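We treat protein structure as text, and this decision shapes the records that our systems exchange. We quote a single record here, exactly as it is kept in our systems:
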Amino acid sequence: MADQRSTARLSVNELIKQAKLLESEEKLEDAVKNYHTVIAKDKLHTAAYNRLMIVYHR
């Protein structure tokens, strides 16, 4: 996975796509980091909150 500095440069949509891919690869901690980055960029991004809920449930 890309380091946090390069992750911060990605768009919100790219971060969500990457996080979903990480989820499918069972890299849940990295997926959570991406979702938190999305939320830091857009506090009202409901999809990121929903995916976080699902990952935490797993």
